[in-house]
Amino acid sequence: MTISNKFPEFDKTFLEAAPVLPPATVVIGMSGGVDSSVAAWILKQQGYHVVGLFMKNWEDDDNSEYCSSRQDWLDVVSVADLIGIDVEAVNFASEYKDRVFAEFLKEYSAGRTPNPDVLCNAEIKFKAFLDHAIGLGAKAIATGHYAKTARVGSEVHLQKAIDESKDQSYFLYRLNQQQLSQVIFPLGGIRKTVVREIAQLIGLPNAAKKDSTGICFIGERPFRDFLNRYLPNQPGPIKTEDGKIVGEHIGLAFYTLGQRKGIGMGGSKDGSGDPWFVAKKEMATNTLYIVQGHEHPWLLSPNLQASQLSWTFDGLPPLGPYSAKTRYRQTDAACQLIESTADHMTLQFDQAQWAVTPGQSAVLYDGQRCLGGGIITNAQP
After folding, report:
1. Residues 187, 227: contact at Cβ < 8 Å?
2. Which pLDDT tens digit goes with each residue over 105-161?
3. Which CATH number is associated with domain 3-201?
4. Which residue out of 67, 120, 335, 370 is catalytically annotated?
5. What fold, for 298-380?
6. Domain at 232-294: CATH architecture
7. Active-site residue flag, 120
8. Domain ranges of the chain
9. pLDDT tens digits, one per residue of 184-202
10. Is 216 a catalytic residue?
């Protein structure tokens, strides 16, 4: 049985962009989930010599009810046995704590809302993991990310997946040309529904396993409880836009712009019933500002500034029209790149964007191509 016979829509274009062709050795990161498992099977079917690698990136609470690493490892071993590949486990917990978690806490302490999955991809999955794989003799690495690469002249372009509802190029925007030239994304041309069908058809033991939705090291645990273990509570006033104190927050680090639940505010006293949203965090006075109504002007930003820029190609993008995402799963928003330097960019949107959050990533696209982006530092209402 071949994939193309059972699933005519299967897109083999990843082979056209692959840095090496079968039977070269490819090391694939396997998490125990259905995506990386099917990706490993696809590579094996195409004739690669496949080695699975399970990365352990967190070990502070291995015995916690929220830690699934033991079961994930058992799932990886079961899948590897079924599809006939070797697998090994490697511990990157130290690297993760130094390169990802420390930055995560630093950003939250400064009142920003970071995206650790972006940093994890750049520092662990495509750096520490890549280095380890090359040390094992691999000619390339692979992952179960929903993204594509395309070779255009001497460049490797990072592109959106066919299944845009699952596209993960947003999380990969910090990959550079060297990293992109050594990676294979077997799922870029397949829809998630087909991935599930393949898993069922070949009898993967984790075919019905639920997708993980938690942050990589936090999992499905209550986020506020987790953060409270590492950051101190610093209560302060909650104010409305007119400066009236209406409550007390538990610490600015525990809130993010656009947040609706967990503020401790019900409906409006004037009877309008419009919900309250976090709109601003004033670090100097430890004040949390909230506003009423989803479309309040304080929640809408016509432009943003970003720094810590990283591009998937060499050089800088020219000024002009593009589209951008300011958070994952957001519909692409038309914008103009009106300022671009080595460490700073300014985007101006055709339509004001909702709850643009410092610490999150602004990722720039030219059609289907992901160009790169940066960390949002400021957004003007």
Report:
1. no
2. 999 999 999 988 898 898 999 999 999 999 999 999 999 999 999 999 999 999 999
3. 3.40.50.620
4. 120
5. Elongation Factor Tu (Ef-tu); domain 3 (2.40.30)
6. Roll (2.30)
7. yes
8. 3-201, 232-294, 298-380
9. 999 999 999 999 999 999 9
10. yes
